[in-house]
Design a protein that fits this description.
Strand order of the largest sheet of chain A: 1-4
Oligomer: heterodimer
Largest sheet of chain A: 2 strands, antiparallel
Radius of gyration of chain B: 24 Å
Number of strands of chain B: 0
CATH superfamily of the largest domain in chain A: Cytochrome c oxidase-like, subunit I domain
Distance between the termini of chain B: 65 Å
Structural class of chain A: mainly alpha
Number of helices of chain B: 4
Number of helices of chain A: 28
CATH topology of the largest domain in chain A: Cytochrome C Oxidase, Chain A
Structural class of chain B: mainly alpha
Strand content of chain B: under 5%
Radius of gyration of chain A: 27 Å
Strand content of chain A: under 5%
Chain lengths: ~725, ~60
Amino acid sequence: MQIEKFSYDNKIVRNFGVATIVWGIIGMTVGLLAAIQLFWPFMNFETQYTTFGRIRPIHTNGVIFAFVGNAIFMSIYYSMQRLLKARMFSDLLSKVHFWGWQAVIVASVITLALGFTSSHEYAEMEWPIDIAIVIIWVVFGINMFGTIIKRRERHMYVAIWFYIATFVTIAVLYIVNSFQLPVSGWKSYYIYAGVQDALVQWWYGHNAVAFFLTTPFLGMMYYFLPKMANRPVYSYKLSILHFWSLIFIYIWAGPHHLLYTALPEWVQNLGVVFSIMLIAPSWGGMINGLLTLRGAWDKVRSEPMLKFMVVALTCYGMATFEGPMLSLKKVNAIAHFTDWIVAHVHIGALGWNGFMIFGILYWLIPRIYNTELYSKKLSGVHFWLGTLGILFYAIPLYWAAVVQGLMWKEFTPEGTLKYGNFLTTVLQILPMYMMRAIGGALYLSGVILMAFNLTKTMKRGSLVANEYAEAMPLEPIVKKEAGWHRRLERKPTLFMILALIAILIGGMVEMMPTFMISSNVPTITSVKPYTPLELQGRDIYIREGCMGCHTQMVRPFRSETARYGEYSKAGEYVYDHPYLWGSKRTGPDLQRVGQKYPNKWHFDHMLDPTITSPGSIMPAYPWLITQELDYSSTPGKIRAMQTLGVPYPEGFADVSIEDAYKQADQIVADLKTNQVETSREKEIIAVIAYLQRLGTDIKVSTNMNSNEKQGEQ
Amino acid sequence: MFKQITELNGDENYLIFSLLMFIVFFVIVGIMLIRMKKDYAQHMSQMPLEDDEDATKINTENQ
């Protein structure tokens, strides 16, 4: 056998690296704007494209898929080539992957600003983009497995398994979570409804955190940390143990996002138990990383990139301890729907993901440019700006969360809510929101400093686009190797299938009974499908991202039933394609808002929320009052709902426009008696119709029951 | 604190089944690890460090 000469593709690594920095700055800037809007509502600029509800998904998806996504690809393309001693399978596929991914991001930013959203958190992109994402992801997969097949190293290092698990699981999660029925070019309805939709969304949402923000980063840690510290990983066996435990357990824990909701009790409990178990494999990874630095702590003192890695691992440990704590029902009762969750995810995003990305960039860019870092000192300044930024971001939010969470639950000795007005609890925490924005600004300024430093570094050196290397080709295997895992590590396909089975088990056990056994979602006879006008209003609610700040889920606590009304039941959501429970209460819950206020109140409130609620931080929605509602889309929407099993009468779609007009006229007439001149063509009418319907079906039945009882007496 | 887990009113079957499955899975991985040779683990953990020397050497040769 002859030694083969080949080269590593560094250009693709550089491209993904540059994209990481550019999208990082954009994604974080949008995040900073969103943070400022929370205490200065005028920063919504009163245009629909820059309002909080629309830019929040741009921030979350931008940071997750654009910033972190590009960083993952950069790191995978660099480390995989070297670990497998092979150039990437196809330069063309690499290019398609890179440009395709950037195109998807640009398309997402534009469509999300335009209000094309599916409402599922971290998967808001509408169906055409979903398809594009899946295609690009498959291109990445082919490129990755192609490289694995033509490798010159028989055994796959632990980092590669994490990459394989990432690829397979994200594919499964994204596809299952995106089963939608397209209604038009940029509008679709999820095929699942209510409780089932919620379960799928958080099975996805939770595991996107696991397999997009965690497993690839553990793979990156197992490659780059030993490189930086110049010593092997502390325990290779521990890495295997925590790999398999992590991917097996993680998938079960999704329901902890839905505690105390209308989700069946046993699914919630299953989620809690597995969440607590999750501490073990998560900390296994953190400990393995930190102990890799044993005997190298002197380097940590002098190397900012190792400091980044240490803080990243510490934040990982904190976030993965906090997660299971938050999933304990008693803690969740106070923390859920507050800023605690926002702080928690930012410990992960800013600390774990962000800091590891920065550490890797500082290590990698000088290498592929065959030079030294422009300024180590500046990278040290970046480290401190970033660390201070994280602290200023998280601590005020934890504070805000506890203050507000307890205020929501406080009763007077007479037994009424002490802070009956939701807004009081919001105004209380505005100073904390301001400090959080300062933290975000500090963090962002560090990133801009890094961009400057790395640009200077690139200018100083020149890109080694093709790095030459040589290795022996793989010999055909003659004798059987002992040990299952050794054999397993030679067989990537088998490995992928086993990983797939490990991740599928949890999802199946949780979801199958909820989907198959109808008794898990008890139906309520008085719950009827939305009228055509309400359906249109609901779509506007989705378009404006109202669910980013308002929940539709009254939990069964005295503090919530006293504030909002009857607690929510699973049967109330059977026609909700998609479910709109929300995950954060920046404003009050809306599940029982129907018929609570007059139509005029809603009209004024949308025009300018401070008319009805002085001091409100809600953005104004003046365009709802001027924009015309597209009635012509109604029949298509009704037909789509019928396809999904919503029991509208036969032929209802054909009369749906008249039906909508009829209801709209009533609202217009009511507004007119209250000195508001408008027409049925305006979007606001549909929004009012929807809001007035919310949560009222169940009231109909209580009224009927009480009427019946009176009749009996 | 753990009432939510101890009082399941008949739904514990799901839980026991799930935990059993995990234990089986964990034991299999455990056996695999015990059977793994030490020098093999050593070899694997050296992997990220190996390519470094070769690559830089060759890189400088080419320049």
